[in-house]
Amino acid sequence: CSPNYVIKKGLRLWNAAIPERCRQQFRRGDEWQCFFGYRIYPTLKSPVFVVQWLFDEEQLKMENIQLGSHSLTETQWNYIQNLGRDLRNSLRDVSAVFAPACLSHTLISKSNWLDFQVRGTSLNRALQCWDRSLQENKNSRPAARNCSFHHIDQCRLPHCNPTCPALRDQVTGQEVNMVQLLMNMGFDVQRISEQLGVAPRQLLGMLSNGG
Prior knowledge:
211 residues
């Protein structure tokens, strides 16, 4: 089933409540689109901090892409790259965000969530800066310097962030790095290097060491 169909069906089964400000943006019958973050975000009044992996594992599974289980086709590899690009673009105007370029699904529920970083800033630090900013705005105080809460990885490949959670081969269950995993799935270094406009050695370094 497509994500759209699932959301529409869930809307009926759950008797879901949709915020009125978002509902008004769509014609009758299309309110289900408010369940997409990028649709509802512009209608929100309350401050929101968005946490999002740029390469969502469950999203890939819905497209029958499970890294390590079979070779990747060119279409599937392009889908993975486009997913990261589209998510990155959708978060551009979000004021408070933490989005590592990792292949995963859950984040806060992981025991090592404090380890993940975006260009040297942890989620914990970003949340502290965001909370501090809310207090400063409330009390009309000037914003603190060097305390950002807008962090989106700019590297274009899955797991190009060195702090990403460990990957496991779906077949063997063994921990592997991204290079090993992609090589086992028929990853064409030369072809992808040409697509990205980088040297093959640089591409392998991006995957091994984080962009």
